[in-house]
Amino acid sequence: MSNPFDNAGVFLIQTIFDIYILVLMLRVLLHWVDADYYNPISQFVIKLTKLPLTPFQRVIPSFRGIDMAAFVFALVLEMLKIVLIVWINSDTFPRVGGLTLWALGDLENTVIDIYFYAIIIEVVMSWVNPQGGSPIVAVLYKLTEPLMRPVRKIIPPIGGIDITPIPVLILLKLVTIVLANPLIQMGMMYAIGNTSA
Questions:
Q1: Domain tally for the chain?
Q2: Which end of the chain is more exposed for a tag (fewer CB within 10 A), N or C?
Q3: Tens of pLDDT, residues 16-38
């Protein structure tokens, strides 16, 4: 029988870690797409992550437009989160190889979630405020355009309506099913010897 205090602890750990890891991965993506540094959203993300990232940035340089310091820090936090949750649930520590795969799969899911919800928010805001112009719209457009642009070349607007978000959202879900989830399952298997979280 599960202990309610253990469940509460797992919930708090997962929630706190997931929120901060999401912010870190958002920083990685905003850096990658070269989003406006002075945009309020960019500034919010930078200020939230600047202090803990400083030691990582001293030793880990960016690589091909990717903020590797933020990525490595997110991976470390993801691994720490998994270790704490596994330890609370089973009093054991996951094996490093499986732990790494599991954490990478979770980070992949985080990136997919960021893009999935960014596209949905962008679509909704285009209906509510078609003129755009807000800082959020500018960041969302910059963030999602690398995914949307190739699909727009294949699927032009139909009757003046851009249906590009639909196939992109479907592709994101397929990536989750085909790549991220199997990676997580494989990581779980090697980390704790079974396929259950």
A1: 1
A2: N
A3: 999 999 999 999 999 999 999 99
